[in-house]
Design goal:
Low-confidence stretches: none
Distance between the termini: 54 Å
Largest sheet: none
Number of strands: 0
Order of helices and strands: HHHHHHHHHHHH
Helix content: 55-70%
Number of domains: 2
Shape: elongated
Number of helices: 12
């Protein structure tokens, strides 16, 4: 059962995302939220001010910011309540492997985000991202099981003994280790 208000917000977000991708958008987002800066992490009060600015934005402005925003804006938008906004942040061309790795390790991130990361060849090329996805209990089990054989024997051994991963992952890790021992 879905809320008609959230359905309208999703539809608006998708329409704006299509406009941004097509280059026909007319929404203006402040340049200080779009341009990357080489400055250190902002002070907590500056981050709170940024959070307040983003919170007061319309869905259309958030969509545009998700697709073009800087690292600080992307970090805050990943926690937006509208499920489409975090997905669009992943489409931002400026998102870094470091940010993806932090998301893959985050046990509070939405399962859908982890699925999108696991489906991306670009991001699963990075060994640390694959490892973080397998270790994250929120990663869908099917995706984690697909990535498990690509890990090194040391990590598989550690996962086989771990209580922090779902039992399905630990059991499969033990099977892989057993097969490796049998094959020698």
């Amino acid at each position: 059962m879905s809320d008609p208000e959230s359905e309208a917000a999703r539809a608006e977000a998708l329409a704006v995302a299509e406009q941004v991708h097509a280059g026909t958008d007319t929404i203006v987002v402040p340049t200080d939220l779009v341009e990357e800066s080489s400055e250190p992490k902002p002070a907590p009060e500056a981050e709170k001010a940024l959070w307040m600015r983003i919170r007061s934005m319309t869905v259309a402005e958030k969509v545009k910011l998700a697709l073009r925003g800087n690292k600080d804006a992307r970090g805050l938008l990943m926690r937006d309540t509208n499920r489409i906004i975090p997905r669009l942040v992943l489409q931002n061309p400026r998102i870094t492997e470091e940010e993806i790795l932090m998301l893959a390790k985050d046990r509070n991130v939405d399962e859908e985000i982890l699925r999108l990361i696991a489906d991306s060849r670009e991001w699963t090329k990075v060994y640390a991202v694959r490892q973080a996805l397998v270790e994250n209990a929120k990663t869908p089990s099917g995706k984690a099981l697909q990535l498990l054989p690509s890990l090194g024997e040391r990590e598989i051994s550690r996962l086989a003994k771990s209580k922090q991963v779902p039992s399905v992952i630990a059991v499969q890790a033990r099977r892989i280790l057993f097969r490796n021992v049998q094959g020698r």
